[in-house]
Amino acid sequence: MSESHDSDFPTRQPASPPRQTAAYLKKWFGEVGFTIDARRGQNFLIDLNLLDLLIRSAAIEPADVVLEVGAGSGTLTTRLALLARRVVSVEIDPRLAQLTREQLLMLGQAGDTVELVEGDALRSKHVFSADVLDAIDRAREASPAGRFLLVANLPYCVATPVISNLLALPRPFDVACVTIQRELAERITALPSSSDYSALSVWMGSQCRSEIVRILPPSAFWPRPKVDSAILRIEFQPERSNAIADLERFHTFVRDVFCHRRKLLRGVLVRMAGGRDQAKGRAVVDRVFAEMGLGPQTRAEEIAPDDFVKLEACFATAVGQLG
């Protein structure tokens, strides 16, 4: 892979994007006859200082490839196009896709810089759409020296599957910087033994370093959501992800264990290992607990993400050896 230099990818300076405040959007939407579709989580980030903070937190470099899920009115899209080598922007609402397309054309940012995918980013809850994956591949091929970033004001309804499924790809994102519901941000960054600690905390925490950059009040958006949001920055750590022998198996194990997070871990694992054969299950778990140094009162919510990786590998080995 060749080394890139900032001079190879000069920052583009077309006309400045409009300042999409609440007043601007209300006027613009009124002129074009656009009405908000609440079912699709259409809450537009109108605090421009926070929009700038989102972009700064992503630390986009000139060779980078950026995925944006939820182009909305194009306020973030047009700014990303000034900073990254390639932008893949996804918008499910054809009316907003058209508005974003017009913004890009007006500002001279269409064509090689931005590929706008009109449709759902997800084929199903656990799978990205082929159109989006193909667009990401094209963008990465066009800038092989760049990182792959997710930068987006994510609709609440798709935030978890978008982040989780990107992390499961053979080539995950390097950095994600997104606005999401505060509750979700707190679950992702939760520590063991806290009330927010969950299967998602383990899945993300076993492969990434995540931090909440800023809590956003409802007034930062139009229309106002009923809850707080947050800017969350996630940095993928490949050396930790590579320590997981089988990502899909690990993901399933963590979800199954956390279905019974309040129960004692030993009983949960005995049922998982032996089914109706309790003797077999106890033999597996006794071996695992001895090797991991776990006590009989241990609960899943007490185990840190990296220790969960070791636990799953030990459990899989013990089950395999017992047949």
Structure explained in plain terms:
The protein has 323 residues and is α/β, with parallel strands linked by helices. It has 2 domains: 236 residues, Vaccinia Virus protein VP39 (Rossmann fold, 3-Layer(aba) Sandwich), CATH 3.40.50.150; 76 residues, Helicase, Ruva Protein, domain 3, CATH 1.10.8. The chain is built from 13 helices and 11 strands. A 7-stranded mixed beta sheet has the order 4-3-2-7-8-11-9, with helices on both faces. Helix 6 links the parallel strand 7 and strand 8. Helix 12 crosses helix 13. The N and C termini lie far apart (44 Å).
Topology:
Layout: H1 22-32, E1 44-45, H2 48-58, E2 65-69, H3 75-83, E3 86-91, H4 94-106, E4 114-118, E5 122-124, E6 127-128, H5 130-142, E7 148-153, H6 159-167, E8 175-181, H7 182-188, H8 199-205, E9 208-216, E10 221-222, E11 229-236, H9 238-241, H10 247-258, H11 265-274, H12 278-292, H13 305-322
Parallel strand pairs: 2-3, 2-7, 3-4, 7-8
Antiparallel strand pairs: 1-10, 5-6, 8-11, 9-11
